[in-house]
């Protein structure tokens, strides 16, 4: 799948990406996704369809790229209390956002793409957020699960439930956190 050119980090390439992404977001907000086509996106973004095909390959890859960019966190996780309370609050919000109609569609878009780069980006975004909790706990001398434990025992079950079962509620998410971080965990 060597269809992607190597876009430069700024300049025209960045403007094209921003215009195309914005066009897709606007169209998804007002149209049925089945009615959206690359020529329509190109017209709205004021680029040629060949520009989109050259950069993204096809509509599914473009939708996955837009979804991945939308999943990028805008800030570090909030600090609400203890490291465990911070993790619980973040995980509950994460599960709620990913289980929403928009969140589920973004996950489907990312997973439907043949290029795994956007899925890897999303995993990286989640890991970056979790690393903040780990660093905060370390600074406070608190015991805290590893990144692998958090991904395997909190994030993975949440995403699996969202994709293949009932959306997880706050109680389920708190139970997952409790399994990796039991109450009364002593300082290390």
TrEMBL record:
> Which domain of life, per UniProt?
Bacteria
Gene Ontology MF terms in the entry: DNA-binding transcription factor activity; transcription cis-regulatory region binding
Q: Which InterPro entries match?
A: Homeodomain-like_sf (IPR009057), HTH-type_TetR-like_transc_reg (IPR050109), HTH_TetR (IPR001647), Tet_transcr_reg_TetR-rel_C_sf (IPR036271), TetR_C (IPR011075)
Protein name, per record: TetR family transcriptional regulator
Lineage start? Bacteria, Pseudomonadati, Pseudomonadota, Alphaproteobacteria, Hyphomicrobiales
Q: Which residues bind DNA?
A: 37-56
For whether the record's keyword set contains Glycoprotein, the answer is: no
Has keyword Transcription regulation? yes
The residue ranges of the HTH tetR-type domain are 14-74
PROSITE patterns per UniProt: HTH_TETR_2
Gene3D superfamilies membership? Homeodomain-like, Tetracycline Repressor, domain 2
Q: Which UniProt keywords apply?
A: DNA-binding, Transcription, Transcription regulation
What Pfam family is a match, any one? TetR_C_11
